[in-house]
Amino acid sequence: MSDIPLRFMRRVAAAGSVSAKGRAALLEILSPPTTVSPATDLMVVGEKVTHGYVVEDGWGCRYRILRDGRRQIFNFILPGDHLGRSDHFLGNPDHSVTTLTRCRIYPFSLSTLMSLEGECPELRDIFHRSGRRDLLMLRERIVDLGRRNARERVARLILELYHRLHYVGLSKGLAFDLPLTQEALADALGLSIVHVNRTLRRLNAEGLIDYCPGRIAVQDWETLAGIAEFDVSAFDRAASSRAVSGAWPAHRYDSAA
Amino acid sequence: MSDIPLRFMRRVAAAGSVSAKGRAALLEILSPPTTVSPATDLMVVGEKVTHGYVVEDGWGCRYRILRDGRRQIFNFILPGDHLGRSDHFLGNPDHSVTTLTRCRIYPFSLSTLMSLEGECPELRDIFHRSGRRDLLMLRERIVDLGRRNARERVARLILELYHRLHYVGLSKGLAFDLPLTQEALADALGLSIVHVNRTLRRLNAEGLIDYCPGRIAVQDWETLAGIAEFDVSAFDRAASSRAVSGAWPAHRYDSAA
DNA sequence: CGAAATATTGACAATGATCAACTCTTGTGG
DNA sequence: CCACAAGAGTTGATCATTGTCAATATTTCG
Q1: Residues of chain A with C-beta less than 8 angstroms from the C-beta of B71
Q2: The whole model's pTM is what?
Q3: Using an 8 Å Cβ cutoff, are B46 and A246 in contact?
Q4: In percent, how much of chain A has pLDDT > 70?
Q5: CB–CB of B71 and A253 under 8 A?
Q6: Residue A207: phi, psi to the nearest 5?
Q7: Which of B82, B103, B83, B84 is CA-nearest to residue B38?
Q8: Angle at A97 between CA A91 and CA A99, to 5 degrees
Q9: Inter-chain residue contact A245 with B48, CB threshold 8 Å
Q10: H or E stretch covering B176
Q11: Which residues of B touch A141 (CB under 8 A)?
Q12: Which of strand D's nucleotides are less than 7 A from any protein C-beta?
């Protein structure tokens, strides 16, 4: 029964319509699932990528380490996400992927995928869509790191994670499990551990969130979204392929800067 | 004579081999060039992208503005670069593109391109390659913003720009024209204008660079590359499609952090 | 020539980093 | 089942990188 990656299929379907044939092809390329422990490398910087993985359960992240040990996490990989396809295209990856928790993953051979894409072009579209989503999330992170302060970054990450988890049915009300150390949060947010802690604590004290290690709940959505400048509709649009023309807020450069 | 975008063709060729047919197809889609003034929007956030542009001469940037006026520049668009193809795929863009100087551009219709890609799949590969390059540069920027200080960021940007310009023949020795205001630099680097100025001045005083507005020269490549942790071979590998297995430095998380 | 944009510099403020101590969990071996 | 070690979280004190404000060049351009 549970040899089908339900969350993955769900996320794929949410991103755009998939034919029965596409669904079948998707399942066909997947190898039987395995469970790997935390801190397992699924891809390492500079090493040829031969396999992709569907992460059906557990968390991971894409990251890079600087010479002196500083780490930057590019983004988190959540249940239902996958990796490998977009990293495969030409050359060796510029970053690594590791698991952060115990994960249930479905490996797949990239050469198999590539050849199947010939017969079933829809497959390529499916992976392409999520590649685009990743790109949008990367840009969002750049804005975070470049132009938002700690408070805004944290607020935004919480809302982003909530949304992504909600998509695959992993939210309970406005709460969700957050199996990340504050160190991981810090490395994603470009902050120090200590400052992440303080910021979280402060949001807690202000009643905007209810956080305790391992779990978090959004208490005051409105205020939090205001701080984060978080636009749900924009986020959804990025996640799915359904373009909504003109719905994006028309920003202007009013130059308060 | 100059109705052929030489720098563009050069960059495309540098990224991977292109057949005569591919070259022809590329040229076929392009409309006659126009010159646009600085601060011309080539793409605006949320508005459907119908045309792409080859920027044969002049500089532009991809950016986004926050409600309060803060601006984040994602990256710069240099002579020989193009835009539109990767932004076209499904939905409206999450960011804008504007020119920063007077630019000579070759517009092209995206619908035309899409249909031609059917006949000439090589076209798709060509654009795909540069999409990948953009992705790598975005990740690099994330590392910059998240984990490098002002000095490192500035050093790195200088070296990156030098390399990209060198590719299209726009460097003179170790010098190149830098038609960016310090405000633009600041918005790309996630710093304040004042701090960019100071950092530049300091690098100047230390004899690492020779900067005056409008123009910059690298004086002490070694030291600058050391500060920036800039790996030329990695950069080249990202720019071209020629994968070099195992050549990437094997970073370790030694946790000085 | 003069207005506007850009660059430069000093003084001061503040966000966030670092250091350090201490607590709380969690997992492991005796 | 307890003791203890290791990892993770918390908090205070202090430091420092970077931002903000403001005043003053300097350049660009109509």
Answers
A1: 147, 253, 257
A2: 0.91
A3: yes
A4: 91
A5: yes
A6: 80, 15
A7: B103
A8: 155
A9: yes
A10: strand B175-178
A11: 142
A12: 7-13, 17-22, 27-28
In this complex, the residue of A16, A69, A189 whose CB is nearest that of residue B255 is A69
- The answer to whether the beta carbon of residue A65 comes closer than 7 angstroms to any atom of strand D is no
The answer, yes or no, to whether residue A112 has pLDDT greater than 60, is: yes
Nearest CA in chain B to A247: B46
* Average pLDDT value over all residues in chain B: 90
Contact B63, B74 (CB under 8 A): yes
The one-letter amino acid code at B152 reads: E
* Residue in chain A nearest B62 by alpha carbon: A139
Alpha-carbon gap, residue B149 to A253, rounded angstroms? 26
Nearest to A188 by CA among B151, B191, B145: B145
Residue B221 clears pLDDT 60, i.e. is over it: yes
- For residue B241, the 8-state DSSP code is S
Which one of B64, B136, B253 has the shortest CB-CB distance to A69? B253
**Nearest neighbour of A252 by CB, restricted to B48, B65, B248:** B65
As a whole number, mean pLDDT of residues B90-97 equals 88
pLDDT value at residue A249: 33
CA distances from B76 to B46, B60, B134, B158, B180 (A): 20, 6, 10, 12, 10
Closest nucleotide C1' to the C-alpha of A257 = D20
Name beta bridge partners: A51.
A109
Burial A130-142 (b: 16+ CB within 10 A, else e): bbbbbbbbbbbbb
First to last CA, chain A: 57
What is the least distance, in Å, from the CA of A254 to any CA of chain B?
Answer: 5
The helix (H) or strand (E) run that includes residue B136 is helix B121-147
